[in-house]
Amino acid sequence: MRVMVVGRGGREHAIVWALKKSEKVKHLVCAPGNAGIAQLAECIDIAESQFDELAQYALDHAIDLVVVGPDDPLAAGIVDVFEAKEIPVFGPRKNAAIIEGSKTFMKDLLRKYNIPTAAYEKFDKYVDALAYLRQQSAPIVIKADGLAAGKGVIVAQTMEEAEQALQEMMVGKVFGNAGNQVVIEEFMAGQEMSILAFVDGETVRPMSPAQDHKPVYDGDKGPNTGGMGTYSPLPHIPQSIIDEAIETIVIPTAKAMVAEGRPFRGVLFAGLMITPDGKPKTVEFNARFGDPETQVVLPRLKTDLVDIFLAAVNGTLHELEIEWSEEAAVCVILASGGYPASYPKGLPVKGLDEVQEALVFHAGTATNEQGQFVTNGGRVFGVVGLGATIAEARAKAYADADRIQFEGKQNRSDIANKALV
Ligand code: AMP
Ligand code: GLY
Q: What are the phi and psi torsion angles at 285 (to 5°)?
């Protein structure tokens, strides 16, 4: 088979790496990819947003399967473009990707089908939103409706902060049109977990759960990022809670999408909060693999990934049993100095050839004229250790994370600590 992956981050590197292990895959293309992906796949210079060019490439090069990584092209309908040309593609159509692309859609869906989530109200007028907000108390959560590169959610600890966030979104338009509507939501305390699932209509095949670390600094301090590190599985979370989340949230949501005439095919990613009463509630849904959740989940997958993608595309996912290894995985993100605000690019990377045991997924790299790897993004690498326990996997990830150097490098030093207590 000839397979094309769309995207350029660590998630896509992990997908390409997993596909490369399949005997069925003869040729791998990634558009546009990055310097690490280029070691495994042919990278082509077409951006994720160039749907027609991507589809034409797939037709001209007899691509048998396309896999779309990021949220923006999915929300904008890339899958519909491929399907119209009868190119097999793994990912949700535009009318299903909206579960991530619009928080008001998602919240209304969950309310309609009685799926557990935080109480909320939605607004498209600033004065109404402000009047409602002033009747609430902090902490409280303000969310821009649309996609905002992971930054459209403000967990406000004070009412001043909440009012400021609302003003910035709805009046200042800091997230552009994504802030035309906002959701004001009850704050949920608790422990977060992510359950990703392969979904085709009503068929749900959950992946092993993972936990991300969104704030940039140790101890969950500082602004939110795309994710500074992950681990999987979650030994400190009882299987009964994981099962309950699948039964009460993930499966009912897949069914609700079918009932709404928006069947979901692809990876449905539930961000969940385990509230102090032990009940899982929905924080958000994404319509794609998580980044960096994918980097710890796919190395633990025993089933051939291409078989899963094909089963979803062909409507036979219900016949497939998916197997996971018992190993633990921990991913430490190495980020550019300054991230998630502005950061330099083009800084040379040293020590990649000294890495011993970890898998190194490139999130934002390029090669310079001398053929050296240089930084090319906010998140630069995801260093993944595998081991019999989280502690072992974590030690391996950090040992190799320390071997990779570039100016201004920052990483959290407490990834997976919650699983060790
Ligand atoms: P999201 O972009 O929707 O994943 O939200 C980013 C982060 O904000 C989540 O991972 C949570 O840590 C936090 N968050 C979102 N909604 C809530 C909520 N209702 N209560 C507490 N934390 C929340
Ligand atoms: N790591 C969170 C996300 O991919 O949205």
A: -120, 140
Pairing type for strands 265-274 and 221-224 reads unpaired
- Pairing relationship of beta strands 379-387 and 359-362 according to DSSP bridges: antiparallel
Domain 2-94: give its CATH architecture: 3-Layer(aba) Sandwich (3.40)
Q: How far is the CA of 225 from the centre of ligand 2 (A)?
A: 9
What would the CATH number be for the domain defined by 191-319?
3.30.470.20
Which amino acid residue places its CA nearest to atom 4 of ligand 2? 290
Q: What's the CATH fold of domain 328-420?
A: Glycinamide Ribonucleotide Synthetase; Chain A, domain 4 (3.90.600)
What does the DSSP 8-state code read for residue 117? B
At a CB cut-off of 8 Å and minimum separation 6, what does 206 contact? 195, 196, 197, 246, 250
* DSSP-assigned states of every residue in 329-346: EEEEEEE-TTTTS-----
Q: What is the dihedral of CA 281, 191, 332, 151, to 10 degrees?
A: 60
Q: How far is the CA of 155 from the centre of ligand 1 (A)?
A: 7
pLDDT in tens, 328-343: 999 999 999 999 999 9
Coil, helix or strand at residue 118: coil
**Closest atom of ligand 1 to CA, residue 152:** 2
Total-model pTM: 0.94
DSSP letter, residue 178: G
CATH H superfamily, domain 119-186 = ATP-grasp fold, A domain (3.30.1490.20)
Pocket test for ligand 2, best of 225, 291, 333 (most atoms within 8 A of CB): 291
What would the pLDDT profile of 180-234 be if each residue is shown by its tens digit?
Answer: 889 999 999 999 999 999 999 999 999 999 999 999 999 999 988 999 999 999 9
The answer to whether the beta carbons of residues 80 and 94 sit under 8 Å apart is yes
Which ligand lies nearest to the CA atom of residue 286 in the structure? Answer: 2
